[in-house]
Design a protein that fits this description.
Layout: H1 2-10, E1 14-21, E2 26-32, H2 38-57, H3 76-92, H4 106-119
Antiparallel strand pairs: 1-2
């Protein structure tokens, strides 16, 4: 899933500010550009992941439920609240003690990238 997200960000389909991939759902904080809708971005993500899962793992069942939930971010305060909610998800679910310990989120990957950059 993370590779699918990265590929669409690299292709300029949308900007990804934060994310967490949970065992049974995910949260994304993203900005879509002109010529792109949130519906189309989600179609890319869901379709891209389903395609790779079938191709690389031979998984043939349905992966996604229909639709998705959307919340608009109107200002900086709302943006920060959404980031906090996303980061807290794996902790609230009891998967980890701290958000940065969960390997399937923006914060964990950013921390690893920063540590790698310092090591070089």
């Amino acid at each position: 899933m993370i590779e699918v997200l990265r590929s669409y960000v690299a292709a300029g389909k949308f900007r990804l500010h934060d994310f967490v991939v949970m065992p049974d759902h995910m949260h994304l904080l993203m900005t879509v550009g002109t010529g792109m809708t949130i519906e189309k971005a989600m179609q890319f993500i869901k379709g891209g992941f389903s395609y790779r899962l079938k191709k690389e793992c031979g998984y043939r069942r349905e992966v996604w439920q229909r639709g998705f939930s959307e919340a608009r971010v109107d200002d900086r305060q709302s943006f920060l609240q959404h980031r906090e909610y996303i980061a807290a998800n794996p902790v609230k679910a009891g998967l980890v003690d701290s958000a940065e310990a969960f390997p399937y989120c923006f914060e964990y990957l950013a921390k690893r990238k920063k540590a790698g950059a310092k090591a070089q």
